[in-house]
Amino acid sequence: IIYTNKDGLGGLEIPSLTVDDNGYLWYVSRNGYIGAKVGNRWYSSDVLAKNYYRLNKVTFFDDNLWICSSKGVIRATPTPTTFAVVQFNEFMETFGDYPPQTEVTDIAFHNDTVFVATPLGLAFASIEDNLVNPAVWETTAVWDISADSSDTSYDSRGVSRLEVHKDTLWILAIKEQSEQDIVYYFMDGSIHKLELAIPFSVWETHNIISMDDTLWLLNPGGVYYYSESNNVFSRKNSDAPLQGGFGLAMINDKKFCATGYGMGVFEMDNNIRVTLFETIFGTAISDVVFADSLTIVSTSSEAINIFDGADWYFMDYYKFLPYIEEETDDIKAAVYGVFGDLRSAIVTPDGTMWLGSYGNGILKIFPDLTFEVWDTTNSALHTSVPGLNFPIANRFRIDSYGNLWVMCYVSQDEAPIKVWTPENYDDPYGAVSFDTSCGIPDKAVRAIACGMDRVGVATANGAGIIIHKGTIPNKSDDVYISLKGLLLNDEVNAVAITPDNRVWFGTMDGLSYWDPAGYLVDVPMPDDLSATIMSLCADSSGNVWIGTLDGAALYMPQGYFATFKSFSSYDAPPEDRTPLLNDVIGTLAGSIIGGIYTDGTSGNIWFGFNEGAVVLHSPYKTDSNIEDIYIHPNPAIADRGILPQIYIGNVPADSPLIIYDAAGNLVREIEFFWKGHDGVFHWDGKNEYGEPVASGVYFIVAPSQNGIAKGKLFIAR
User: Fold this and answer.
1) Is-contact 347 291, C-beta < 8 A?
2) Which DSSP helix (H) or strand (E) runs through 417?
3) In 3-state terms, what secondary structure has residue 616?
4) 560 close to 657: Cβ distance less than 8 angstroms
5) Rounded distance, CA 459 to CA 457, Å?
6) pTM for this one?
7) Could you give the 3-state DSSP secondary structure of residue 6?
8) Which residues pair with 681 in a beta bridge?
9) 392: number of CA atoms within 13 Å, CB side?
10) How far apart are CA 511 and CA 523, in angstroms?
11) pLDDT number for residue 263
12) Are the beta carbons of 551 and 616 closer than 8 angstroms?
């Protein structure tokens, strides 16, 4: 089971869990929510989130929840079955001589003393003291010099993690230099370094854990255990591509390890066997591409992920490493460079995976797992930085003819788009180039979209359309249209093509489309969204999905808008918030990465963020036979100026109710589809501002998973 905001979680980045004495499971989220699981639902408090707390850890001790935050420690009483969920009792914000509101990353209890880890060092006090009083706290630090040295020129180092092991408090120090030690212990009021037989200083160690009478250290590259007899840390073997871990637990004498590749289990030989996650590997979504029945998700600088309709598969550098073990260091570095700057990936009909990077060219992985790396020295790719071998291939798209369109941001040959036709997939020099004489106003291409016989191009200095009529190598019948200076703003971030061959452009100042009849139309954006459009996509029903700096919107063929905000959108009412991870739908990083995507047919809409992806199973389809909305009374006639209550029925249970006037202006949106209801709404005849609407015709729509239910109402005052 995977729990999300729809199940009551206030945030999706969960750094810590704990269980209270009554068996309730508690969580904190990075964005400030704390909550508990009661039955099958999570109940959350947003008090800290509204005050911009960042939460790092929660632990249950002495009948209280202790919450480590960006502003200190909070002690709270758990009340999971009440409306408040939790009662905040004490806010400990200053520890001895540390500055007010010092961040606390961990907390531990030992010998009637409470210890807190901070970026400045370790603070501790008696559990019986008034902990709100800064004077009861003592502080000590991790120093890079010995305690008896007279040299005080070094700054102290902070503490990241604490653990009690064999009646001793162990400390993981913040590592600032590659040669620094990280393991210390607390004794007699001060911190002491663990003097190992073999120095242990590895990158990015982030956890210290006591389990099975053993002290463990964990980082992405290894799971290490401490041998007291040899006084060394040794690494456990794991079958994951990277052998590191993030957490350990022992349940019923069985040991588990949380890894970056899935759940690891300690086997009889004491090695760690990992079951790979069947989900997206990586978090920052840079691109989503649909090819035949495959969904291909690229996570920035990490991996290509492929979903075949049943299972997820992924490939990152470490998983691919066994296939290049015999190659030269230069070849390994080239492969590592593509994965390290990965921006887009696709699978062509011949089964080849193409990985495009920001500055390291293209990696082609063939079905037999042989490979080629294309760059400026061996292909049609050109550098994007004069004087360097720096080819950018940061977005792939396939058209209906199987032609592979490659976006090469600021390519110095003035040809920012290159196309490999199916017969030339294997020819590194076989690309057909489209340069700035082909209707592309600028080589700083930010997005492309492929239609049946046309491609829309968005650049930092205008937009263009290439009508190629399916004959890519033969340009004699091509039509090139430059829209520079004609859109709402020449800084164009996004492009999409609807089934009617309209080419839509999202600019820094709004939305426009080019009609095949040869004219441009500007489409006003909803008032509650930013006009800065970062991403666009279109589905087979003609719906245009819009990502902005302030949420998402849907523009339907009937001219109706629907808007979407995230749970963290504090300026939106609670009923307007959705499971979007944040309100920025697309990021400008040279070209656009992340954003909004659809395969055009399934109804699935993908939202890509730096924190992960959200998939909306679109209710906005028009190709179904759904019953019309029932409206009573209709017409609704006012009696002595008072309009009767209007009942609206046959509303699909997964849909909102959206009301427009005859001019297409949004009048009222009563509820959103992700909030269930019984299919009947009451409308008081007022708009979003509580004002009575005027006499006239009103159109009512309820978009659902199975189609759009519609109705028409006449009001007479």
Assistant:
1) yes
2) strand 417-420
3) strand
4) no
5) 7
6) 0.72
7) helix
8) 648
9) 25
10) 5
11) 85
12) no
